[in-house]
Each structure stands twice: as structure tokens, then as C-alpha cells.
């Protein structure tokens, strides 16, 4: 999601009115201001401190534009925000006697007024914590939606020595990656093992693909088969710099040892950053890997297939969508359109059940070749749009593991008064058969799970199965 900005004179005037109007009429004035949240038109200005007025703006923005706003119980948002407020007070050893949750009635405006009054009274007693409390409250309010495409983008920072293509972190990717930890951790399955070493601290200490991660900072990554929050430590964002202690097992030798990795800036292989990579495999199979659905990515993928077709006969196409975190829905539709015409690839629906169809672009030339699509638990959003279309429209075979189930709907960004961006869906996504994919994912036609030994040996059993299917 891109953080971008729009600031109009009307927005500024409304926010000013919200800040200066008196109390009890203030709730009406601020409510009007709070509903004002516009789609940004350019890069954001410098980020400002988050205040109660920004929280209010976000609250009413959600209640105006979120796809399920009409059926949403807004009390759940305010309750979550207040829980976070009190927890932040506790963490800082500064609890306040008056910080008690106000009675809420279900009247959205009246409930906001009651919440705001207690919030202001509480934060006035701990002015040095005001910024922390505001951030914790707003994060919790957005989190209470339980929507994997709802996000408050704030506090973004980049290492001062960063160049395009640089990575920051421990220098590894594991079988449960960062987006899955954030979006659908309940779908993760053990064991946790290193799939890729990108550089940095992981490479420096000799970590290898296939190494099983038995503990993270002394905590198990899985308990009773369920992923724990410990896995998140594998993917720190700048400026997080706390060392991470891993206990590793190398199955090929039985060696167990502990390493401590410090997050740092590292240079990545630029070839791995390409959105579209392609190669010709044995027996005339065109292999195309898409790491995301960026602008023109579908066109680039189809051009790659066309180039490999020149002067030879292709026998099939493998689209590798593993690790594809999504992107632009139109690119997903265009890619599917190269394999089928005259079909619906998915729907965008309102909470009342009315839907708009994504239809194939029949100006795209058909490839006309057998298709296998590789998927995994990191295939999310637009990637799942493609996967569900391939499955429902029977235009190819899905190989790998179930997709992420992170496709609630295309997120729309809205600018807040502190120059941060709030994003959430205005519609929710359904597959071509009107099935719910969000939180569930798309199951493969052929279930193939890579193992730590496969990673260590450089084997790709998912691709091998796909090639077998194409050659049958």
C-alpha cells in the first residue's frame, strides 16, 4: 500500500472547526469533520503527531466508507481502542484512576462524545504519554475491524544509508513469511525452516536453506501445531534493531546450535527483485514467476511467454505465484484473460449483497497452452484472485499448498490530518463461483508440501509435480 497525500482548503477548515467548537455542540461539529476523509492525490507531507482529533477522523471515516459500515457495531472499535489505551498506561506504569470505559449505547455520535471525554480527561493527566496513547488507541481501533486489508500506515522510516534494492532485517526468509505472520498466522504449519538466505547477518553466520528454526528468543515458533507470535521477530522493520536469538537444527547432519542475528541493512541480489522472471524449461515448458501484480506485470509475463515461443513449440506454461503478495486487481484480470475469454474472474460486493463483476479482457490474445499454477500460503490478495479464477473456470491446475486467505477486498486509501494514511476496502471480494476466499484461501488441485530437506538440497517438488502434470 502506498502512502500518498491530499490536503485541501476545505479539509483544513473543517478540521479547524472541529478543534475549536465548544462542548456539547462540539460533538456535532467534530462528527461532520470526522466524516471528511479524502483519497490522497500526491505524496504525504511530514508526519504530524497523532491526536484525538485524528482518531476521531479515522473512526468516522471507517463508519462512512468501510464496506461493512452499515452493519458494524461501532462500540467494538471504541472498546478495542480503550483497551489499548489502558494497556499502554499499564506498560508505562502510569495508570489513571479515571480511565474507565464509558457506557456505550450504540449511538455512534453519542458514543464517540462519551469516549472522547474520558480519553481527554485521561491523557491530560499523563501529557508525556499522549503520543504513545494516541498511536496505541488508533492502531487498536483499526485492528478491531479484523480485516486483513485494513491498515493504518504511520511511523514509516528507512535506514539513512538505504539504496533501492537494499533489504533490512536478519537476511533470511522462512517457510512462514512476514505477510503471512501479519495476515493469516493461523494458516501456518510446522516446521518452521529457512527457505532463502538473502544476505546480512544470516549469511554472515552460515545459516542455510533447510535449517529448521526450533526456537526464537527462547520461544517455540509453534505450540500444539499453531504458530506463535515469536515468528514475527524474524522480520523486523527499521529502526527495530534488537538482536534475535535462534536455535537451529540442520537435519542433514543432526547439528543443533544457537546463533544471534542483529537486524541490519544488506544488499540483495537485484535479479530476485524483478517482478517478472522467466525461463524455458525442458520439454518446451515456459516458466514465468510473478512476485507481485505491479503495473504492466501481466503484460510483461505474457511478453515473456511470447518470446519463449518464438522459433519453437511450447508444450505448456507454469505460472509460479508462490510468495506473490498481490497488487493491482486489473493486472490479475489481464493475466487470467490470456487463458480464457468471456468469463467472470471474481466479484466486488457491498454488504447488502449487490456485486460488480470482474470480467475478462477479451482483447488479450489467448495463450492456448496447458497451464499449471504454483501457489502457497504466501499467495495473497490479487494472487488469490488469479488462483480462484484458474480453479473455478478450470483453465489450469493449481499445485502447492492452499493460498493465504488474505483477500477481503481492494484497499482504498484515505488521508488523515496527521499526514498518515488509513486504508480499508470499500467492497469485499468473492470468487467466480461467488465463494468466499478471504480467511479461507484457495485449495490446490494437487497438494505438495516442500520440506526442510527439499530446501537444503535445492529441490522444488512443487515445480516437479507441475511438470509431471503438464507432460501427462
Structure description:
This protein is α+β, with helices and mostly antiparallel strands. Helix content is 31%, strand content 20%. It contains 13 helices and 21 strands. The strands form seven sheets. The protein has a six-stranded mixed β-sheet with strand order 11-12-13-16-17-21, sandwiched between helices. A hairpin with a 4-residue loop joins strand 8 (244-250) and strand 9. Helix 3 (52-65) packs parallel to helix 6 (130-143) and helix 9 packs parallel to helix 10 (329-337). The longest helix has 18 residues, at 74-91. The radius of gyration is 24 Å and the shape is globular. The two termini are 41 Å apart. The model is unreliable at 1-35 (pLDDT under 50).
What is the oligomeric state here? single chain
Strand order in space, largest sheet:
11-12-13-16-17-21
Number of strands: 21
Q: Please tell me what the overall shape is.
A: globular
- Radius of gyration based on Cα positions: 24 Å
Give a quick account of the main beta sheet: strands, pairing sense, barrel closure. 6 strands, mixed
Helical/strand content category: alpha+beta
- Average pLDDT rating: 91
List low-pLDDT spans.
1-35
Helix content: 25-40%
Number of helices: 13
- The portion of residues forming beta strands comes to 15-25%
Distance between the termini: 41 Å
Amino acid at each position: 500500500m502506498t502512502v500518498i497525500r491530499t490536503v485541501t482548503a476545505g479539509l483544513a477548515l473543517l478540521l479547524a472547526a472541529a478543534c475549536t467548537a465548544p462542548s456539547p455542540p462540539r460533538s456535532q461539529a467534530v462528527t461532520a469533520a470526522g466524516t471528511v476523509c479524502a483519497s490522497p492525490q500526491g505524496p504525504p507531507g511530514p508526519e504530524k503527531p497523532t491526536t484525538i482529533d485524528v482518531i476521531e477522523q479515522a473512526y468516522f471515516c471507517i463508519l462512512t466508507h468501510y464496506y461493512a459500515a452499515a452493519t458494524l457495531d461501532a462500540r467494538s472499535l471504541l472498546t478495542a481502542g480503550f483497551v489499548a489505551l489502558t494497556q499502554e498506561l499499564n506498560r508505562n506504569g502510569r495508570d489513571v484512576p479515571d480511565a474507565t470505559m464509558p457506557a456505550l449505547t450504540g449511538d455512534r455520535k453519542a458514543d464517540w462524545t462519551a469516549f472522547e471525554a474520558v480519553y481527554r480527561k485521561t491523557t491530560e493527566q499523563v501529557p508525556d504519554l499522549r503520543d504513545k496513547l494516541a498511536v496505541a488507541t488508533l492502531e487498536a481501533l483499526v485492528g478491531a475491524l479484523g480485516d486483513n486489508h485494513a491498515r493504518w500506515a504511520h511511523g514509516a522510516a528507512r535506514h539513512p544509508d538505504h539504496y533501492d534494492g537494499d533489504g533490512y532485517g536478519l537476511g533470511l526468509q522462512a517457510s512462514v513469511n512476514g505477510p503471512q505472520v501479519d495476515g493469516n498466522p493461523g494458516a501456518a504449519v510446522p516446521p518452521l525452516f529457512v527457505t532463502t538466505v538473502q544476505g546480512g547477518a544470516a549469511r554472515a553466520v552460515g545459516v542455510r536453506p533447510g535449517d529448521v528454526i526450533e526456537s526464537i528468543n527462547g520461544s517455540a515458533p509453534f505450540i500444539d501445531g499453531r504458530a506463535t507470535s515469536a515468528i514475527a521477530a524474524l522480520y523486523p522493520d527499521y529502526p527495530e534493531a534488537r538482536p534475535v536469538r535462534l536455535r537451529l537444527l540442520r537435519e542433514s547432519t543432526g547439528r543443533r546450535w544457537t546463533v544471534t542475528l542483529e537486524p541490519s541493512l544488506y544488499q540483495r541480489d537485484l535479479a530476485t527483485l524483478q517482478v517478472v522472471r522467466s525461463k524455458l524449461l525442458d520439454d518446451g515448458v515456459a516458466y514465468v514467476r510473478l512476485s507481485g501484480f505491479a503495473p504492466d506485470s501481466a503484460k510483461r509475463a505474457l511478453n515473456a511467454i511470447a518470446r519463449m515461443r518464438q522459433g519453437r513449440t511450447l508444450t505448456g506454461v507454469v505460472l509460479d505465484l508462490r510468495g506473490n503478495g498481490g497488487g493491482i486487481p486489473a493486472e490479475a484480470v489481464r493475466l487470467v484473460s490470456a487463458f480464457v475469454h468471456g468469463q467472470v474472474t471474481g466479484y466486488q460486493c457491498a454488504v447488502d449483497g449487490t456485486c460488480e463483476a470482474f470480467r475478462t479482457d477479451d482483447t488479450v490474445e489467448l495463450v492456448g497452452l496447458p497451464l499449471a499454477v504454483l501457489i502457497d500460503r504466501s499467495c495473497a490478495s490479487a494472487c488469490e484472485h488469479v488462483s480462484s479464477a484458474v480453479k473455478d473456470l478450470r483453465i489450469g491446475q493449481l499445485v502447492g499448498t492452499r493460498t493465504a486467505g488474505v483477500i477481503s477486498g481492494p484497499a482504498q486509501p484515505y488521508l488523515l490530518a496527521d499526514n498518515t494514511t488509513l486504508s480499508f476496502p470499500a467492497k469485499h471480494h468473492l470468487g467466480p463461483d461467488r465463494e468466499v476466499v478471504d480467511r479461507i484461501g484457495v485449495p490446490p488441485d494437487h497438494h505438495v508440501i516442500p520440506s526442510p530437506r527439499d530446501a537444503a538440497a535445492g529441490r522444488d517438488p512443487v515445480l516437479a509435480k507441475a511438470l509431471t502434470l503438464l507432460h501427462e
